[in-house]
User: Fold these one by one.
Assistant:
Number 1:
Amino acid sequence: MIRPKDHLREGERLASLKSYSVLDSLPEEDYDNLTNIAAEICGTPISLVSLLDKNRQWFKSRFGLGVSETPKEYAFCAHAINEGDDVFVVQDSRLDERFHDNPLVIGDPRVIFYAGVPLISEEGFPLGTLCVIDNKPRLLSQTQVQFLKALSKQVMNLLKLRKTNVQLKKSIDLLDEKNRELEQFAYIAPMTLNPLNDISSTSELPFE
C-alpha cells in the first residue's frame, strides 16, 4: 500500500473545508438523494460523499456503507484529490500497488472498484469526492462518468448553499448583537448625557 500524500496546499485546503461547517453534521436528505442516484446510475452497491479532514475521511452521505468515517491513510479519496479535477478510477485495486494490501481492500467493505470525482471549492481546493464503489472490477461508460460529474456539481451546490446560510446566520447574529448594544445605549444615554440632570442636582445644593 502507498499512503496518499497531503495536498500541496493542505493547510489552505483544510481551512476551505472548515469554512463550510459541514464536518460531523447530521445526515441530510438532499445529499442522500444524490448518493442514491449515483449508485443507481453507476450500478454500484456503495456511493459516498467523502470529505477529507486532517486525519480521516468523513462521509457526509453514505449509501450502502455502515461506517461514518475511516482513517485518511486508507482513503482512495485522498489519492483522488491529488489527481486534478477529473474522475479518478481504479478498475481493480488488487492489481494496483497503491491499494492491493489496503485494509479497505482485503477486508470490509472490499473496495475493488473505485471512481471518484473531486469536490472543488470556489477557491479551487478539493474538499473530498463524490465516489462510487464496488467489490468487483468494473468500468464506467462515458455516460455514467458524465452523470457522476453532474451529480458532483450538485453536491458542491449544496455545500455552497450551506456555507452561504452559515455566513448569513453569523451576519444576522452580529446585527442582533449590535442592535442590543444600541438599545442599551439609547436607554442609558439620556440619563447620563442630559444637562438638565446636572441643573436639577445643582438646584438641590444648600446656599449660604
Number 2:
Amino acid sequence: MMNAHIELHNAGVVFPVFNAASLSLKNRVLSTVTGGMIERENSGLAHVKGLDSINIKISHGERVGLVGHNGAGKTTLLRLLSGIYAPTSGHAEIIGDCVSLININLGIDPEATGRENILLRGVMMGLKPKTIKEKIEDIIEFTGLGDFIDLPFRTYSTGMQLRLAFAVSTGVRPQILIMDEWLSTGDEEFKERADERMRDVVSSAEILILASHSHELLLNNCDRVVWLEHGKIKMDGKAEDVLNLYFS
C-alpha cells in the first residue's frame, strides 16, 4: 500500500448562484462580507469562489490544522480533500484511503434499523461492503445498543443515535482522516470510551487534517497549521507560529 499523500496545484472551487440579477442589494452585502469573492456575468449569473488558487502539499505523517473565520473556506477545503467536491480549476491529487468525519449523520436513514444504518453510513463514507461487513460486529459491540441494533433508528434516544453514528464513523482506521472539530457524543456514560477511540483513530492515521476554533486542540494534535482567508491561504507554517498570530 502506498503512503498517503495530498497535493493541490492551483486548486479552486467556484459555486454558481442562479437568479442573481434580482439580488443586487444582497449581492453588494455578500461581496462585502466575502471580501469580493463574488463575480457576476452580464446574464445575472453570479459565481462565488469557495477556494482560489490553493497550493498545498501534505505528506505521510503530517498533522495539519485549519483555521479561519466563518466563510474563509475551511469546510470547502475539507470537502475537496474528502472527494466530496472536485476542483473547478487546477488539480487535486489525493493518494490513500480517506475517511471524512465532517458530518457523522450523513447516510443515516431514520426508518432503517441500526444494523442497516451501519451499512448505509459505511457506504457513504466510501467503504467497500466487504470492509463494512468485516467490522460490523465490532461496531455493534462498541455502541452498547444490544438488541436495539435491530430496531428502527427513529426509535433511539438522541444519545443512542449519536453512539451509533460515532461508532460507525470511527470503526475503521483510514490512511487520511479529515475532521471538522473533535467528535464528541455528548453521552457522559459513553464519553470516556469515545475519547479513547478518537485518540486511537487519530494516532493511527497517516495524515490528519483537523479544522477547529480551539487553540488548545490544534496545538495538541497538529504540527502544522494552514490559515485560510477569503478562500486563499494566508499563512502555512509551524502550528505554534500560525496559531499565535491567528489567535492574537
